[in-house]
């Protein structure tokens, strides 16, 4: 995240495997492989001219799948700080990574990004409460 | 927090002891025992139909009271992300947990939640400054 | 940060070396030594009468310079929570600490604070895109 937020696109891409996939599940958009990741990020660069973006992550859960594979999931709050210092917010996200060991380090084989949405459980409870009140 | 924010109420309640207490100190409201915690959370579910809630914690301080008891305190920033992706904020909080070892794991015997308020020290300093200026 | 946010000024100052420096690089302001830090913080106290401030840090990178010196950098999101519970935001920051071992503990010899700004890389990309479109 430090590399991404510093717009060090090559450095960020190097934290993925050569064929690493970023899946923006909430908008049905998949970026496959480092070259596509770098091309997409470079094309998006002008959008960051107005604000410094930061990702604030929390609540990592790390599960060992096998000795070379980890499933890591976490939440992310995303800020945009403009030239004047005003902070605005992107939606919050839930992220699922699959990390693999490569040459003694870890790289992301996939990163799946889900935008937070109101829970179906709560929506159903609210509907039931309205029905009960009617 | 992951369980609570996913509205997995039974799962969240299981992180407390059977008689675990949640004390919302800032509104003088105490929930005692897992059954009351689950009943209260279920009753509150409809309030979460409009937004996904996330707790972002930081600055944990962990103190060992004895070999089976830990005092853990931390700060919490609480976001609400609506269907359109807009993020709004609850007040910030300071939380004090008492955790106990149960069957080799940790459970909360109590969680005390304080809403952040301007400090009396700063309020007194401001009053003194006004007096000095008058 | 816990000590600073609790306005425990003496306690916070004690996390610095006697000659520790805080450099607000973004406003060209340097505070040198604990005594100046305490005096400045006390003078600023009235500004905190209206809101509880919290620093939310993330993405620590720790580099060992030698056996007694660590370079630690991280990001900080700063909230202000007023009496009514409304949360507003300071700009986000990037911080660079130099920590040294003193009597078996760590103290800050310097803390350099940079306000986040839109990246020159993104600004140049946006200018190039405008030129390309013109």
From TrEMBL, chains A, B, C:
Domain SnoaL-like: from-to ranges: 1-112
Alphabetized Pfam families for the sequence: SnoaL_4
InterPro entries, per the entry: NTF2-like_dom_sf, SnoaL-like
Entry protein name: SnoaL-like domain-containing protein
Taxonomic classification: Bacteria, Bacillati, Actinomycetota, Actinomycetes, Pseudonocardiales
């Amino acid at each position: 995240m430090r590399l991404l937020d510093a717009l060090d696109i090559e450095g960020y891409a190097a934290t993925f495997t050569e064929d690493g996939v970023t899946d923006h599940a909430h908008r049905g958009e998949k970026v496959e492989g480092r070259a596509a990741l770098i091309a997409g990020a470079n094309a998006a660069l002008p959008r960051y001219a107005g604000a410094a973006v930061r990702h604030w992550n929390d609540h990592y859960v790390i599960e060992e799948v096998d000795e070379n594979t980890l499933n890591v999931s976490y939440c992310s709050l995303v800020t945009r700080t403009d030239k004047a210092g005003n902070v605005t917010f992107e939606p919050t996200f839930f992220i699922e990574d699959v990390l693999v060991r490569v040459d003694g380090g870890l790289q992301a084989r996939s990163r799946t990004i889900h935008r937070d949405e109101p829970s179906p459980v709560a929506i159903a409870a609210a509907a039931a409460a309205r029905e009960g009140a009617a």
